[in-house]
Design goal:
The complex is a heterodimer. Chain A is of the alpha/beta class. Chain A is built from eleven helices and nine strands. Chain A has three domains: 6-101 and 149-182, Rossmann fold, CATH 3.40.50; 107-148, no CATH class; 199-300, no CATH class. In chain A, strands 2-1-3-5-9 form a five-stranded parallel sheet, with helices on both faces. In chain A, strand 6 (134-137) and strand 7 form a beta hairpin. Chain B has one domain (17-156): Rossmann fold (3-Layer(aba) Sandwich). Chain B has five helices and four strands, in the order E-H-E-H-E-H-E-H-H. Classes of the chains: A alpha/beta, B alpha/beta. At the A-B interface, helix 6, strand 8, helix 9, helix 10 and helix 11 of A face helix 2, helix 3 and helix 5 of B.
């Protein structure tokens, strides 16, 4: 039997949705399994880290890594798989841009641990136990990975060859990307394997987008009856379509929900949040500062809205923490 | 406890000279700055002026990029309301400024570091006053250190001990 290309899948700080995206290939996964040899996929197969370590460098044709980098273990695995792979593909929003876990860059790691282990309403921790890096139990030393100060996208840790966008990538995006990679005609290194145009271009409601958008207030899907035909921006909803890469076939819009931007920016935009901010704000009707502020107040969480999937890859990457933190773990 | 290297310890404010990136509209504030120069007015030399055709040309990415690459403040100068050479550009600048200001605040950048002023071509004195005022306010705040703290984050990555 001729050697089939070896392929690996791995996950870091992610929800598992990207693994689902692979399974969602449905029957097509059989073609994938026939075309490649899956040598590492912790979700589905029983291979260990030592098996990867034993492989020759660059012996894996392609590794699809989803999830952002939050812990020292994830960073080690990213470096290991980079070393063993000819092509490393950042798969899904977290790996591509930082993703939803990337919003943790608005907090210090200390604040996160405090919230999770001490302060959240569902936490009962009278002994104020926190995870330890190292522990000895019955003469066995065990250790936990370090919890890094920030969330990083994969390419902020190792070199990445290609990106598959989406939260999660749609089966079609994933299938097309696989075909591109297995087809041998590789696109330029650093390419995002999805169309390089804005989502509005493939939106079924494109024809109802008015020539000139104006906002007198912003509405939210939770308190608005959304028309199923009209452009969502024209209805006053914050839809990320104009600043987001196409390729998902506007699935959210088809489900009558505004785009939240998971496919990231097109190649001509560096900072997706800044671009949608620019688009949304400049279309406000008023010319009076106080009125403009009133309209803007109807967007309760601008950073969480505009940078929902891309804070670590944005220009600022994380909130600046002043020298004196608001509070600390002291007194535990 | 987490250790945060004190950013200000290495850079005492007394010797700190703010670096402010200024985006000036070609038709008004840039001419006012030019007039200030030809009139031999003195003002703080801390601004680096970028001439644009309109304050409406200021992409929020320019502002974020300036902060991300070491600017301590960003100043936008445009035409008075109603005076825009392109009818509406300054209103667009105003709206973007007001939303971007909120985003910057949430990202930990103080409000005094980001400023929008309407300054006509005749108002050289307003350039002087506004720049001097902003430089003083930013000087009091100290360095922003966005670029530096970024590197520290990478290096300190795994050093968190609880």
């Amino acid at each position: 039997m001729p050697d089939k290309p070896k392929v690996a899948f791995y996950w870091c700080a992610s929800c598992g949705g990207c693994e689902e995206a692979v399974v969602d290939l449905a029957e097509a996964i059989l073609d994938v399994a026939a075309a490649v040899d899956i040598v590492f996929w912790p979700v589905a197969t029983d291979f260990k880290r030592k098996d990867v370590e034993a492989m020759a460098d660059r012996s894996i044709a392609a590794t699809f890594l989803n999830g952002a980098i939050r812990t020292s273990e994830q960073e080690e695995m990213a470096r290991l798989l980079r070393c063993k792979s000819q092509v490393l593909v950042a798969t899904g929003s977290c790996s591509h841009l930082g993703g939803i876990p990337g919003l943790a860059n608005l907090c210090t790691s200390e604040a996160i641990l405090r919230e999770v282990y001490f302060e959240s309403p569902s936490t009962t921790n009278p002994e104020r136990t926190l995870p330890e890096r190292e522990h000895t139990h019955n003469d066995h030393a065990v250790e936990l990975p370090a919890f890094c100060e920030t969330v990083r996208s994969l390419d902020q840790v190792v070199d990445v060859d290609f990106y598959i966008p989406g939260c999660p990538p749609t089966p079609r995006t994933f299938r097309n990307a696989l075909q591109t990679l297995l087809g041998g005609q590789l696109p330029p290194r650093g390419s995002v394997l999805a169309p390089d145009r804005a989502l509005c271009d493939e939106c079924p409601r494109k024809s109802s987008k008015p020539e000139k958008l104006t906002f007198a207030q912003f509405k939210r899907p939770t308190n608005t009856l959304i028309d199923e035909q009209q452009c969502l921006l024209a209805q006053g909803l914050v839809c990320m379509g104009p600043a987001t890469r196409a390729g998902c076939e506007a699935l959210c819009v088809q489900g009558n929900m505004p785009c939240t931007g998971c496919y990231g920016p097109t190649s001509r935009v560096r900072d997706q949040g800044a671009k949608i901010l620019s688009c949304i704000a400049s279309s406000i009707e008023s010319k009076e500062a106080t009125e403009i502020d009133q309209v803007l107040a109807t967007i309760p969480d601008p950073v969480g809205t505009f940078y929902r999937y891309g804070l670590p890859k944005s220009l600022l990457r994380k909130r600046r923490i002043q020298e004196v933190p608001h509070s600390s773990l002291a007194g535990r | 406890m987490l250790s945060h290297p004190p950013a200000s310890a290495a850079t005492p404010h007394s010797t700190f000279e703010p670096r402010i990136v200024a985006f000036f509209c070609n038709w008004c504030t840039y001419l006012a700055a030019d007039l200030a120069g030809t009139s031999r007015m003195k003002y703080a030399p801390n601004i680096r002026v970028v001439r644009l055709m309109c304050s409406g040309r200021v992409d929020p990415q320019f502002v974020l990029n300036a902060f991300a690459h070491g600017a301590d403040g960003v100043f936008i100068g445009g035409c008075h309301p109603g005076d825009c050479h392109y009818q509406e550009g300054n209103y667009k600048a105003l709206r973007r400024y007001q939303l971007l200001r909120r985003v910057l605040k949430e990202m930990g950048i103080e409000e005094e570091r980001f400023r929008l002023e309407w300054i006509s071509a005749a108002e050289a004195d307003r350039v002087r006053a506004a720049v001097n005022d902003m430089v003083e306010k930013v000087r009091l705040l100290g360095p922003l250190n966005f670029a530096v703290s970024d590197q520290q984050t990478e290096l300190l990555g795994a050093e968190v001990v609880v």
